[in-house]
Every structure is written in C-alpha cells, then in structure tokens.
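A student in our group prepared the protein record below, which I am reviewing. This is what I was given:
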Amino acid sequence: MPRSEAHVRTLAARNHLTQLCAHFAVAVPVTERVDTAEIDFTFGTCRLAIVDDGLALTADAVDTISLARVEYLVGDHLERLGARDSLAVDWQPALDGTTGAPPAADDTTGAPPAADVAGSGAVGDREKALDQP
C-alpha cells in the first residue's frame, strides 16, 4: 500500500487540524481526537497529528493514483485554510518504505492528472464537492 508523509510547520496546529476536519466532515468520515485526526476517503486515508512545531500528515491509499488524490485534497485544502500563515504541504514517500511506483516516464511534474484528482467517475458526488473552496 503506497504511503506518503508531510510535515507542516505552524504555530496554530490545533486550529488548522480542527478547521480541516470540520471542512471534510461534511462529505467523508472524519475521526477527530485531542491531538490526532483521521480523514477517510473511499480511495484512501489521511492521518494527522499535532507535533511540537506543527502537523504531521500520513497518507495511505490502495494505489499511487489514489494516493495522489489524497495528497492533493488534503494538501490543497490545508494550504488554502492556512493561507494567512503561508502553510506549505510537501508530500514525500514514507520513510518506512511503503511507497508506490514512480510516476510514469511522461509525467515530469509528479502531480496527478486532473481527471484523477477531481473528475474521475469513481469519486462520489460528496467527494467531488471537496474540490470546491
């Protein structure tokens, strides 16, 4: 199962975690605890944890395309919600070795194709709505 991680530096980790969970909870199952949360998409999961200097994010999915969708949705929404703090989410392959296959030879950007992120027929209507600000 492919996995990636990101560390987001912020002094307002709890606020950003709460906002992100509230945003996604209208469309997908979200479990929020004191210092952690889990967002469960039909195609993958993102776990978030408050750490000393920000948020630690871990994304898991059944394949690399689904992983890219989780990364895009969570990263994009967190960056938009944290725009005042100039949050930046930089996903990296997980250190435990559970990474997916490298991008196709013709994909030099590393970004998922637009259809895979927002327009595929496999995405539920509620998850499509997540792409809206």
Observations:
- Residues 24 and 79 are 14 Å apart (CA to CA).
- The beta strands are 3-9, 30-32, 36-41, 44-51, 54-61, 92-93.
